[in-house]
């Protein structure tokens, strides 16, 4: 056998061996991942998170969140029924995903529309429950929770604020108790900060930049804000007041 043929055969054997070994490693890896997911025999449901907080929601806006449903069992998991505790909340899994193979997952889209009843029943701090019924004999119905603080549109206050040496405009900033405040802060002449300790706010704004600061005006009184970045001789006087009535 010639030397060139031996080299070709050696390369061929090496390539085949590499392919076989790679496929073996991939198979082992996939099996290991599946072993980590599978926790018990039969169909078994697991939801990625038990609760999701939408935070502040404007009445009239629709919020969405996706919960992931995983089959951690050894047999197919079938989603039999999905229901919710209130008509303002809808939940859905695509028909083609309602049978979940072992180790696989499906997305459950939850939508929250606080204005659906067209009254005040869905204002304030709310909790809604999604019920998922399956063929998991040990846990045939599981729950997922959504929470939100729903405010009417008029409670959302947007205020433009200018920062420059060595003052803020407007000053004072006046809002009402219960308002959800959005400050759009622009610096005209350098780097400053908007620091409002009573609401744990400390944000830097550079020249020509606009930043947005949001907070719920959940306590009444007069609160001082200031610039915490050294910005020249008048820095110490760069202060203002937030009045919540």
Count every helix, treating DSSP H or I runs of 4 or more residues as helices.
Answer: 1
Q: Which strand order do you get reading across the main beta sheet?
A: 2-9-8-4-6
Q: Shape, please?
A: elongated
Number of domains: 2
Find the CATH topology of the largest domain.
Immunoglobulin-like
Give the oligomer, counting copies of the same chain as homo and different chains as hetero. single chain
Strand tally is 18
Largest sheet: 5 strands, mixed
Q: What does the radius of gyration come to?
A: 29 Å
CATH uppermost class of the largest domain: Mainly Beta
- Distance between the ends: 97 Å
Layout of secondary structure:
Blueprint: H1 3-37, E1 45-47, E2 51-58, E3 63-71, E4 77-84, E5 89-92, E6 99-100, E7 105-112, E8 124-134, E9 141-151, E10 156-164, E11 167-169, E12 173-175, E13 180-187, E14 192-196, E15 201-205, E16 210-216, E17 221-226, E18 239-244
Parallel strand pairs: 2-9, 10-13, 12-18
Antiparallel strand pairs: 1-3, 3-7, 4-6, 4-8, 5-7, 8-9, 10-11, 13-16, 14-15, 17-18
Descriptive overview:
This protein has 245 residues and is mostly beta strands. The protein has 2 domains: 45-151, Immunoglobulin-like; 154-244, Sandwich (Immunoglobulin-like), CATH 2.60.40.420. The chain is 14% helix and 47% strand. The chain has 1 helix and 18 strands. The chain has one helix spanning 3-37; strands spanning 45-47, 51-58, 63-71, 77-84, 89-92, 99-100, 105-112, 124-134, 141-151, 156-164, 167-169, 173-175, 180-187, 192-196, 201-205, 210-216, 221-226, 239-244. Strands 2-9-8-4-6 form a 5-stranded mixed β-sheet, with no helix packed on it. A 4-stranded antiparallel β-sheet has the order 1-3-7-5, with no helix packed on it. A hairpin with a 4-residue loop joins strand 14 and strand 15. The longest helix has 35 residues, at 3-37. It is elongated, with a radius of gyration of 29 Å. The N and C termini lie far apart (97 Å). The model is unreliable at 24-34 (pLDDT under 50).
């Amino acid at each position: 056998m010639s030397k060139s043929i031996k080299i070709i055969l050696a390369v061929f054997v090496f390539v085949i061996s590499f392919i076989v070994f790679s496929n073996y490693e991939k198979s082992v890896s996939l099996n290991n991942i599946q072993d980590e997911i599978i926790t018990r025999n039969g169909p078994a449901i697991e939801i990625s998170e038990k609760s999701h907080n939408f935070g502040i929601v404007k009445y009239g806006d629709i919020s969405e969140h996706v919960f992931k449903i995983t089959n951690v069992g050894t047999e197919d998991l079938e989603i039999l029924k999905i229901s919710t505790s209130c008509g303002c909340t809808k939940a859905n899994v695509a028909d083609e995903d309602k049978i979940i193979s072992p180790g696989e997952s499906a997305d459950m889209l939850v939508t929250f529309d606080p204005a659906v009843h067209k009254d005040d029943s869905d204002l304030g701090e709310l909790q809604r429950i999604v019920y998922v019924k399956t063929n998991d004999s040990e846990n045939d119905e599981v729950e997922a929770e959504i929470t939100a603080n729903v405010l009417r549109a008029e409670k959302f206050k947007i205020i433009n604020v200018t920062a420059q040496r060595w003052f803020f405009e407007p000053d004072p900033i006046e809002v009402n108790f219960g308002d959800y405040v959005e400050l759009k802060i622009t610096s005209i002449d350098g780097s400053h900060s908007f620091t409002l300790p009573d609401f744990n706010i400390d944000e830097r704004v550079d020249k020509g930049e606009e930043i947005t600061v949001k907070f719920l005006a959940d306590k009444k009184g007069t609160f001082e804000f200031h610039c915490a970045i050294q910005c020249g001789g008048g820095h110490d006087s760069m202060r203002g007041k937030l009045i919540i009535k």
